[in-house]
Each structure stands twice: as C-alpha cells, then as structure tokens.
Write a structure and sequence with these properties.
The complex is a heterodimer of chains A (777) and B (547). In chain A, 66% of the residues lie in helices and 7% in strands. Chain A is mostly helical. Chain A folds into five domains: 37 residues; 130 residues, no CATH class; 109 residues, no CATH class; 157 residues, no CATH class; 253 residues, MetI-like (MetI-like fold, Orthogonal Bundle). In chain A, strand 9 and strand 10 form a beta hairpin. The N terminus of chain B is likely disordered. The radius of gyration of chain B is 31 Å and the shape is flat. With 547 residues, chain B is an alpha+beta fold. Chain B has 20 helices and 16 strands. In chain B, strands 7-8-6-3-10-11 form a six-stranded mixed β-sheet, with no helix packed on it. A four-stranded antiparallel β-sheet of chain B has the order 2-9-4-5, with no helix packed on it. A four-stranded antiparallel β-sheet of chain B has the order 14-13-12-15, with no helix packed on it. The two termini of chain B are 33 Å apart. Classes of the chains: A mainly alpha (777), B alpha+beta (547). Chains A and B meet through helix 1, strand 6, helix 17, helix 18 and helix 19 of A and helix 2, helix 3, strand 3, strand 6 and helix 8 of B.
Chain lengths: 777, 547
C-alpha cells in the first residue's frame, strides 16, 4: 500500500514536472512573438489614449484634454461620453442585480464589506492603469496603488472564508464600472466647463455697447488692385553697400498688386502720378532686407466707373511697407442681436442649466413616485388628498423649472448666434479692440459659438431621451384610464411628450453640423469613407459571386486559368497597380480609360482629377445637360472617388470570387439534386440553396471588406493628388496627413480613435443584423 | 511509426469518399448558357489582365505615343547612339538632363529666375565644382541669387549670399536644374548678371538665342521679329511629337500676348498643364545614349536609383519574412499543440490585435520606435563603436554597421515591429491543429520531444501553410508604404514602394518611365505568384475562410 502511494506521489510529481517543462517551453516559444506584439501592437493602443489628449509635437507636447476630440467631432464627444457613462451604469446595475440575486441565496452574508473592498480594489487598479498610461512611474504614487491592491486582495481572502457566496466578480465589476462612469462624468464636466468658460469670457468682452459703437481705424488687408500690368521689364538699380546692381522686375510680378502697397488707394490714378509700391520680399536682387528706393514709370490699368479699362502711366516709387488704414465698423448690434448686446453678452455658468436639468428630472421622478404610492392608498386616507395636491404643486414647480431651464438655454443660444454672425475679420478686430491683443490664430468665433452650445445640446438630448422614456410610461399607463376622455387625454400627452423628445434629440445632427472647419473636414472624410466602403463591398460581393458561380457550375475547361487571372490584382502590390491606374485614368485624351469612352463617343474625362459628382458628369456627358442643374447634394460621389472605388473593386473582386469558389465547393450536391427532383429551376436553386448556404462566407467577406475599406490606405494614398484637394481622402488618409504633414500626433490619434469607434459600431451592427440571417449549415 | 501511417491512411480514406460524394457540378447544361458563361468570364479576365498589359505596353512607348494613345508602341524598342560632340549639340528631348553650360569671365554672377511654387533646385557648378544649390521654391514670383566669384576655390559661405572666390579669367558655369515635384512646373531662368573683373557688369538674358528651351514635348523658337513660334522639328528624335503641338498653338492665346513667350502652359480640355520646362540643353558626359522602349527600364533602374531601392526592399522583406515566419511557427505550435496555463488569455490578446485598425497603432508605434531608437543610440551605440568598423565583415555590408544601434531611418525600424504577425500565427495554428494527435503520440513514444516533433515532422507536412504565410508576409512587406514614409528620412533604407510613390509624385509627365518603375516593383511578387500560384489560391481558399 505504502509503495503504491509513493508511486502515485512520484507519478504526480513527475506529471507536474512534465507539465512545468512543457509550460516553460511553451512560454519560450510564444515569448518572441508575444513580446513584439505587446510592444508594437498592444502597448501603442494604450498609450494612444493618452496621446490623443495632447497637443503639439512629440517632445514638446502638452496636455489639452478633450480638445482634439472637440476639434474633430465637436460637441458630439460629450454626448458619446455621456452615453458611455450611461452604458457603464447600466452594466453596473446588471452586475448589482446579479450580486443581489446571489445574496438572496445566502442572506447571512455581509454584502457591504464586499462592496467596500471592491471599491478599494477598483480604485487601486484604475489608479495603477492611469499611472501606466501616463508613464508617470514615480515611487510614491505607485506604492499607493499597490497598497490599495494588496489591502483589497487580503480583505477578499478574509471575506471568502467568512461568507458562503462569492461576490468578488460582480462587485468588482460593479465598482470598476461605477468609478469609471463617475470619473468620465466628472472629467467631461470639467472639460466642458473649461471649454465654455472661454467662450463666455469672450462673449462677455465682445458684446457690449462700447464695442458695438466703436469704429476704430484698422489696416485693410487682402485688398488687391487687379490687372496692373507693367509695360515690359522694369529695370531697377539697387545699391547695396557701395556696389550697384541691375535687376529686372518681371511684368508678371505685378499682375496683382496689394492695395496696401499704394499710399492712396482710393483716389483716381492720373498720368504720371507717383504711387508707392511695396516690393514683395525676395524680389529684386534677393538681399534681405532690400534697402533701396527708386522710381520707375509704369503703365497701370484700372477699371473706371464705367467699367471700361483705362491705361494710365504712373511712377512707381519703390519703398518700404505702408499701411492703409480705414475706419472699420466692428459689428452691427442688430446682426448680433440687441438683447445680447444690452445684456453685455452674459451667459450663466453651465452648472446652472445642468442643475436645473437634474432638478427637473428629479422632480418628474418624484411625481411618478407619489403617483405609485397614491395608487396603493384608499381614497379616504388622509394623505390621499394631500398627496394629490403635492403632486400638482410639484408638477407646477417642475414646469416652472423647465421654463427657467429653457430660458437659460435660450441665453446660450442667443449669445452663440451672436458669435456666429461675426465674420472672421469682424471677430478678430472686435477681439483686438476689446482686449487689446489680437486673438490667437486658432481662435474662431464659430468654434466659440459651438463651444457655448455644448451644454445646451447635451441637456436637450438628455431631456429628449428622458421625455421619450416618460412618453412610453404614459402610453403604457393610459390603458388603465377608465374614461374615454382620460384615455385619449393620456394618449395625447404621450404623443406630445414623444414629439417634444424627438424635437430635442433632433439637436444631435446640429451638433455635428455646427462645428469648426476641422470637424467639417472629418465629417466629409467620414462620408467619403462610408461611400467608399458601401459601394465597393457590395459590388465586390456581387461580382465575386457571379464569377465564382459561373466558374463553378458552368465551366469545365480553363477554370484554373481563370482563377489564376482573377487572383492577380489581389496579389500584385497595390502600390504598383494603383500607379498603373493613375496612368490609365489620366486626364490625357490618349489615356486608356478616355480612349475607351471615346469608343462610345464620350468626351475625355478628368477621372482622378475631377471633383464633380458622378451623376453630374453623367448628366453632362450622356444627356448633354447643364451639370449645374444637379444640386450638389445629389451629385453623388465625385468622379475621383468613383475611380478609386473602381480600383478597389478591381483588386478585390477576384479575391472574393476565389473564396466564394471554395464556399461553393463545400455545398453538398445532394441538395441540388433534391431540388431538381422537386422541380426547382436554376434560379430558384441559386436563390434557395446557394445563397443561404454561402451566407457564412458572405458574412465573413463583408466583415473583412468593411474593416478593410475603412482602414484602406496604400492605394488611395498613391492615387490621390494635391490638385483636387481632399476629394478622395478617406478618414485614414486624413489621419495620416494630419500626422505626417501637419505634425499633430495628438489630433491624429484622436481621429484614429474616432475611426476605431466607427468601425467597432459598424461591426457590432453587422453582427446583430446577420445573427438571424447567417445560416451555418 | 506504424500508427502514424495508419492514421494517415485512415484520414485519406475518410477524405476521398467525401470528395467523391460532392459532385463538382450539376449535370445537364445548355450550350448557350455555357457559352454565355465563357463570354462573361473572358470579359472579366480581360478586365483583370488589361492594366498589367497596359503597364508593360506603356512602359515601352515614347511620350508622344502615350499622349496620342496608341495601344502598342510602333517605335523601336532599343537604339544605341554613340555620343560624340557633334551630336551633343542637339537637344535630345526627353532623354536628356536639363542642363546649361555658359562660358563667362567675371567675378560675380547673379542667377535670376522665376520661382517655382512646387520647388526645385538649381545645381550651380563653377569649373566643374558644385558651388551651390539654389532652391527655387518660394511664394514670391521672382527671385535671384548672387554668387560672387573671386579667389576660387575658397568657398567661404554657402548661405543666402554665396561667395565663391575665383581667380580672374574665363570660367565655365554649369547649371543643372532638378525638376520639381509635380506637373506643370514653370521655372523660368531669366538670365545671368555677370560682374567682370574691371567692374563693369553685363546682363546675359536667357533669351531664346542664347539658350534653347525645350518645352516638354514642344520646342519653341522666335522668328526674326521676335514672335514666338512653335516647332517640333529640332527635337532630336524625328518622330517626336508633331501633330499634337501644331494643333495646340491655337489653343494657347496667351502665347501671343506675352512679349517674350518663354514658356507655354498648355491647357488641354481645361485640365492641368502637362508640360514641364526643361532648362537649356547642355553637354552630356555619357558615352552612349540609349533610346527606345527598353531604355526606359535602364533609365529607371539606374538614373532613378530603383536598383538601390530594390535591394533595400529585398533585404527588408527577406529579414521580415524569415523572422516573422520563424516566430509565427514557434508561437503557433505552442498554441496548437501544447498545454500551458494562460494559453487562452494570451491567444485572445493576440486576436485582439486583429481588430485594431493599423492606423490607430501607427502613430504611437512611431513614437515608441523613436524612443527605442534614442535609447538604443545612447546605450547600445557605444558597444557597436567599441567593436569597431564592421564594413569589412561579410554581412557588415549595410546590415551591421557602426550606426546599427540607431533604429530610425535604419532597418530595425522597418523590420523589428513586424517580426510577429497575428495573421500568420492564427493561420499556422489552424493548420497545426488539424495534424492528428496520434502522430505526436507516436513521435513521443519514439522519444521525440516537442521541439524535434515540430522541426522534423510538423514542418515538413505543413509546407503548404508555411508557404502561404511566407508569400503573404512577402507581399505585405513589399507593399507597405505608410510605415517607411514615417520612419525613413534618407534613401539609405527606403523601399521600392516609397520610390514608386515619390516617382509618381514627381514623374507625372513621364508615364512611360513610371510604368517601367511599376513593372520593376511588381515583378518579384508576380514571379512568385506564377511559380507558387497553387499555394496562393488554395492557401487563401482553405485558410482565409476560417480566419
């Protein structure tokens, strides 16, 4: 017996040793790949969250909070954060419910201690992760985090011995989510307050009667005298030191002359009049600065009042810069809004509308609470009457608060409208007049206006959701009403609430629209990405399936050759094939694509350099209509984008076909035979057997296609050209450009996260949609 | 071993009847349908092949043929000219480098030129020595640059005011204009202002008499009264562009308006200017001048440095493929056939990376590589320096040098981050998992451990899967553009994808050369594909589905 036992023990030890050896070997095998993936694949994503909150170049950057996101998607980021917090709360409440259910089986356990311990652990973990992300590796803070973790782990082991049930998972989840939600809300509130504070300050400075009535003298910039033509080369003599040089000014140099180059721009030119011309820098002999003054007789062409052109001779006096000053009316009080100006641009701090909104929500909740208690009471209970009265008073108070809230929001809106009505020039002039210093280059009235509206938008959307929720409750409660009048009244109320809710939520698109130029850029890029993806992926699926079907069922000979050819575009380096496409789709009438169009008698197109929409181009070329008759919202994707899409379809259709081919091979042939016995035709067999059985392949391909098109880079980057601006830039390209050309890694990373979010949401939606429709054999 | 063979045979037996049970196609077809199918498939095949054929065809055309839009070149494919002085006085059109050579005697020259918004540079040689490079990029319309020449060759400063000291007497000045990035750049070289030793100054305008300007496909001269006319006759190669230019004269009214038409901006169909202005002809050092279609490949390979880029790409790709495949095999084996705690967790971490778009990782990864590079130069660099000069050792050639500690703009930045690939691990793991367990048991009874089993049994039988991984890694690495753009700053390690990209950016008006470059970039991959196309299609068809 004893030997058997030792044998067993030795066996167990040997087994353990073997397992240990195997594990160590496995770790060694995985280690290289894992370390590299960790350093270059996972860790970048974690640091990216921190990086996206910074502004500036990598070494000198500084923390700016959510500014990058605000720049990219405007106030939407606050709504996203709010939804994120709500989602966390929801998940936390689910975890809490699970813990409660578990607790009910073991009522003697003390759940509170678990909660406290989990809170400590959650705080410790979040603190440590925060330190890791921000790379703040100091001894003290790290020690605090580790102490919290150690305390809570010790407390867990202690609690596990004392209690019957296990609540660690659920309570920890609950606490982590709750703490995260609280942190997000706190962070977002702080950020929003900071954003709004500047806007409030600026509005307060700009909008008052002093500034509105002021008419300061300001230099006129950007005004130009056009069609100034010099009569041939202008010879100049320039003396530098004690040497004199010849120089020639080209006539082209003065096609357009800035008005501030002329001392008196508003008087009519007469023959031989002396005017001063500001020499553009580096003109002349290239010495900096150019300290010479000389005269030259030139001919000036001006447009006179009759609209005809006059030739005038004038003497150009070359000299240093002069400024043209003119009185400038900063802004009209009527345009901004008289109320705003008389109020001095005052807006309350955002804590006020947020508190009001919270109060309204709490008040409505109270009304419902009283209602539910009241239903349980009998009518002769003394509290019955009082509670009814209380409810009415509460309802009136809520209504009053709500009106007050709307008024507060109206203040913001009016001020924002005032800011929006200022042009850039007006804004910077007024700013300089009011504060004494010019605004910094990135400060724009539009952005300030958008920032002022962050809180109102957030509140309105929140209220909208709340109202719809209430409408649902009222709708559900309406059935209990005894009288027809009561019933219809309740329905009407529900309807009203619903409409009100949707009206509030309809603020959402406005949030996206009302944003600065970068956000509009991002939106356009995103729209292009969506078009790029939503056109190419279905087209690839259709072409791929068609080719695969024909190859599989209709063709006996040459299948291998077709497959070889169809796969070629996918294999070939896209950088090379995209280059070939740029030549094929060149604007040259001799290009292959234009020659092909020529076969049908269509004029040569500009393809990759055509910013006009596809529908416009077709309307012009095929129906010979006026392309401007097509409104820009209906013009479709630009011709350039279409060409890029065609390239993508060309590359991937063959790949799709090959994969469909493999999928078709795995469909059992008996099904077709059975269908034939049942008298099904070819189409119905295709419709009812092939398509459903291919659905996993289709799902896989479309998922791959959407992720692929959303992060597609190489081919578009090769095919785009600066000549037509951002017409084919998808979001990926914009991110790269922002990073590479504008050297703004923080903003680029923020955009990358936005793209990531969009892809994630699309994938989730697709997953949900295909749940019922994908048939896994 | 007996058990392994039986396992094999059973799997073979299992699989064959299954295959037989799947009829490849339902019987009975109308010939019309088959014909139609062939028609559609052939049309599809033509669409898929056409760009490749067009690429080869275009690469052999002359510029004029490209813009005329012929399908196949009619000019000869290769011509070799012996370069002698008499021939060299003729401008040779697209084949020659824009260059000017002027004799002058003086002590100071000023170069007067129109600026080029896209940017380009003048290389200025005095008596065969490069004295200066002038950047023509500026927002101002015109600029000039003065070189004071007295007391040569003592170059004192190459700043805004370049001073080159040169003894009195006759000197040759050679100007070489490096064209700028994009189409339609219009650089005007207006002339030279020469200050002589006796103090007098002379302006030598770059008139049409003293410099011949070949304007892209056109050539321009003035008649006796100074009115510009376009001629296409003296452009070197006789077949060079005739019809196109003649018909375009009417379309450029601005030509007549300008007092001295020094350049023409051609507008075709309202499109962009497709001309580039070549600066004056000059003297060419080459002994032979190649012409014809094949010479485009030679020109791209040598003049455009595609040979260097090609070698760079080859080295980078080979290193990445070998490293990545090796590490993927190891990791995939550990995931597929070994039991160890944490396996699922680690695997799900790997899987997570599949869902992260590369652009999210791109920027922080660059920051990480930059800081690694900085750290490495500081701490590893001294080690390399202490070892000494590597340039004589066998692989010392470029891969290990004294500068290898630096990651940025060097091969480590291009290779190391890509040594692990989730895709490869996933694909190989799927394949390794299909290997019957009996095989391992048998090997274990025969005394083989995991490592021997992996290298002696698993690797040989999974050649197909490994080939697929190798091929896709190869293509991916060969094709990548965004990362090299970010981590390289010199041509030392730039891959061919970058070369092609930048060549496209600047070579818009030379589609034939561009296509030759594209062919060079495409060739190795297509060669591999045609050799191993079975592994490609089947690897994708069987494993791609499961991914």
């Amino acid at each position: 017996m004893r030997t058997a036992k030792t044998n067993q023990r030795e066996l167990a030890i040997g087994h353990f040793r073997r397992r240990l050896r195997e594990s160590v070997l496995a770790y060694l095998l995985v280690a290289p790949a894992f370390i590299i993936t960790l350093i270059f694949g996972i860790y970048p994503v974690i640091t990216a969250t921190w990086e996206s909150l910074k502004f500036g170049r990598p070494i000198t950057n500084s923390y700016v909070g959510l500014d990058n996101y605000v720049k990219g998607i405007g106030g939407l980021i606050y709504i996203v954060l709010m939804l994120l917090a709500v989602a966390f709360c929801y998940l936390a409440s689910k975890a809490w419910r699970r813990a409660r259910e578990h607790h009910q089986q073991h009522p003697s356990d003390n759940l509170l201690l678990y909660l406290v311990t989990s809170l400590v652990l959650a705080l410790g973990l979040i603190w440590l992760i925060f330190l890791g992300i921000t790379e703040y590796f100091k001894f003290g803070p790290l020690l605090v985090g580790f102490i919290l973790v150690v305390i809570s782990v010790g407390s867990y082991t202690f609690l596990r011995r004392r209690t019957e049930g296990n609540y660690i998972g659920n309570t920890l989840l609950l606490m982590v989510l709750t703490v995260l939600a609280v942190l997000i809300v706190r962070y977002a509130y702080g950020q929003m307050e900071q954003d709004v504070a500047e806007s409030r300050e600026v509005a307060h400075r700009l909008f008052n009667t002093n500034v509105a009535n002021a008419v300061p003298d300001l230099p006129i910039e950007g005004a130009r005298l056009v069609n100034v033509s010099l009569d041939g080369d202008v010879p100049l003599m320039a003396t530098i030191g004690d040497t004199t040089y010849d120089a020639f000014l080209s006539p082209q140099a003065y096609q357009n002359v800035a008005v501030d180059s002329f001392t008196d721009s508003d008087i009519t030119f007469v023959n031989n009049q002396k005017v001063q011309v500001l020499l553009p820098l580096a003109v002349g002999l290239g010495f900096q600065p150019a300290p010479y003054t000389t005269e030259a007789i030139v001919q000036l062409k001006t447009n006179n009042l009759l609209g005809t052109t006059e030739n005038l001779n004038a003497t150009i006096l070359l000299s240093e810069n002069t400024e043209v000053l003119a009185p400038f009316d900063l802004y009209q009080a009527q345009d901004v809004g008289l109320a705003v100006v008389t109020r001095g641009g005052y807006t309350p701090p955002i804590s006020r509308p947020l508190t009001l909104a919270l109060a309204v929500a709490v008040g409505i909740g109270l009304i419902f609470l009283i209602g539910s208690y009241r239903e349980k009471m009998t009518e002769d209970s003394p509290l019955y009457g009082w509670s009814g009265l209380l409810r009415v008073i509460l309802a009136l108070a809520v209504l009053g608060l709500f009106m007050y809230l709307l008024m507060t929001i109206q203040l913001y809106r009016e001020t924002a409208h005032g800011l929006e009505s200022l042009s850039d020039q007006q804004f910077s002039a007024a700013y300089e007049y009011a504060t004494g210093a010019p605004p910094r280059a990135t400060l724009r009235a539009q952005d300030l206006a958008a920032e002022l509206l962050f809180a109102p938008q957030l509140i309105l959307i929140g209220i909208g959701m709340f109202l719809i929720g209430i409408a649902y409750i009222v709708w559900a409660g309406a059935q209990k009403r005894a009288t027809n009048l009561g019933l219809s009244g309740m329905f009407f109320l529900a309807l009203l609430l619903m409409v009100g809710g949707w009206l509030c939520i309809s603020e959402l698109p406005g949030t996206v629209m009302r944003a600065g130029a970068p956000a509009l850029e991002v939106r356009d890029a995103l729209v292009r990405t969506v078009i790029y993806s939503m056109v190419s992926v279905p087209a690839q699926l259709v072409f791929g399936l068609l080719l695969a079907y024909l190859m599989f069922y209709e063709v006996r000979l040459g299948k291998g050759m077709f497959r070889l050819i169809y796969f070629m575009p996918y294999i070939a380096p896209q950088i090379a094939t995209a280059t070939v496409f740029t030549v094929i789709f060149s604007l040259d009438p001799g290009g292959l694509a234009n020659k092909f169009l020529g076969l049908f008698g269509i004029e040569a197109q500009k393809w990759l350099l055509e910013p006009n929409g596809l529908i416009r181009v077709i309307f012009k070329e095929i129906f010979h209509g006026d392309p401007n008759k097509i409104p820009s919202s209906f013009e479709g994707p630009s011709m350039a984008l279409t060409t890029v899409i065609m390239f993508n379809i060309w590359v991937y259709s063959g790949y799709y076909a090959v994969i469909f081919l493999a999928g078709l091979g795995s469909i059992p042939g008996e099904l077709y035979e059975a269908a034939k016995v049942d008298g099904a035709g070819r189409w119905s067999a295709f419709r009812n057997i092939t398509i459903p059985l291919l659905s996993p392949v289709t799902f896989f391909l479309s998922l791959l296609g959407i992720i692929g098109t959303f992060s597609s880079f190489q081919s578009i980057y090769v095919m785009r050209s600066g000549a037509i601006g951002q017409e084919v830039d998808t979001l990926t390209i914009r991110i790269f450009e922002v990073f590479y050309k504008q050297n703004d890694p923080g903003y680029a990373t923020a955009l990358a996260f936005i793209l990531f979010m969009v892809i994630l949401i699309l994938t989730l939606i697709q997953n949900q949609l295909s749940k019922d429709r994908v048939f896994y054999g | 071993m007996a058990s392994t063979t039986s396992a094999k045979s059973t799997t073979a037996e299992k699989s064959t009847p299954q295959k037989r049970a799947v009829p490849q196609r339902p019987p009975l077809h109308l010939p019309v349908a088959t014909l139609l199918a062939y028609l559609i498939l052939t049309l599809g095949a033509i669409t898929f092949v056409m760009p490749f054929l067009w690429m080869v065809s275009t690469s052999l055309m002359t510029i004029s043929e490209v813009s005329r839009g012929v399908l196949v070149t009619q000019s000869r494919l290769l011509g070799v000219y012996k370069a002698n002085d008499t021939e060299l006085n003729r401008p040779l059109g697209e084949y020659l480098i824009p260059e000017a050579q002027i004799q002058f005697d003086g002590v100071a020259i000023s170069l007067i030129y129109d600026t080029d918004p896209k940017g380009g540079t003048f290389d200025i040689y005095v008596d065969g020595q490069l004295v200066s490079q002038v950047d023509t990029h500026s927002k101002q319309p015109q600029a000039s640059q003065t070189i004071l020449v007295d007391g040569y060759p003592n170059v004192t400063a190459l700043s805004q005011n370049m001073r080159v000291l040169l003894p009195d007497g006759k000197h040759t000045l050679r100007l070489l204009y490096n064209e700028s990035a994009s189409q339609g750049n219009l650089v005007l070289f207006r002339g030279l202002s020469v200050r002589k030793a006796d103090g007098t100054e002379e302006f030598i305008p770059a008139s049409l008499e003293s410099f011949q300007i070949s304007v892209g496909r056109w050539d321009m001269q003035t008649d006796a009264e100074g009115t510009p006319i376009l001629k296409s006759t003296n452009l070197g190669f006789p077949e060079y562009m005739e019809t196109c230019c003649r018909s375009s004269i009417e379309r450029t009214p601005s030509l007549q308006r300008t007092p001295q038409a020094r350049y023409i901006k051609e507008r075709q169909n309202g499109g962009l200017a497709t001309l580039k202005v070549n600066l004056p002809f000059g003297i060419y050092k080459a002994d032979y001048i190649l012409s014809g279609g094949v010479s485009h490949y030679v020109k791209v390979w040598t003049d455009e440095n595609f040979s260097e880029y090609f070698i760079n790409s080859t080295i980078i790709t080979l290193m990445t493929v070998v490293g990545q495949t090796f590490f993927s095999i190891l990791a995939a084996y550990a995931f597929a056939r070994m039991n160890w705690p944490g396996r699922n967790l680690v695997f799900s971490i790997f899987l997570m990376t599949l869902f992260i778009p590369s652009v999210v990782v791109l920027i922080p990864r660059l920051l990480i590589v930059t800081s690694i590079s900085r750290w490495s130069v500081e701490h590893v660099g001294p080690v390399f320096e202490s070892v000494g000069d590597f340039s004589n050792s066998l692989f010392g050639f470029r891969i290990i040098t004294a500068e290898s500690a630096r990651w940025m703009d060097n091969w480590p930045a291009l290779v190391v981050p890509f040594l692990a690939s989730t895709f490869g691990i996933f694909l190989l793991r799927q394949f390794f998992m299909q290997i019957p367990a009996e095989l391992f048991d048998a090997a274990q009874i025969d005394g083989a451990g995991h490592v021997r089993f992996l290298f002696q049994i698993v690797l040989p039988i999974s050649r197909a899967a490994i080939t697929t991984v190798v091929l896709f890694t190869f293509i991916g690495t060969w094709n990548v553009l965004d990362w090299p753009i970010l981590v390289t700053s010199t041509d030392n390690w730039r891959p061919i994808a970058y070369a092609l990209y930048s060549f496209r950016e600047e070579g818009g008006s030379r589609p034939n050369l561009l296509m030759a470059g594209a062919f060079i970039a495409l060739f190795p991959v297509m060669l591999m594909y045609f050799i191993a196309q079975k592994q490609f299609t089947e690897g994708i068809a069987t494993t791609g589905l499961k991914g």
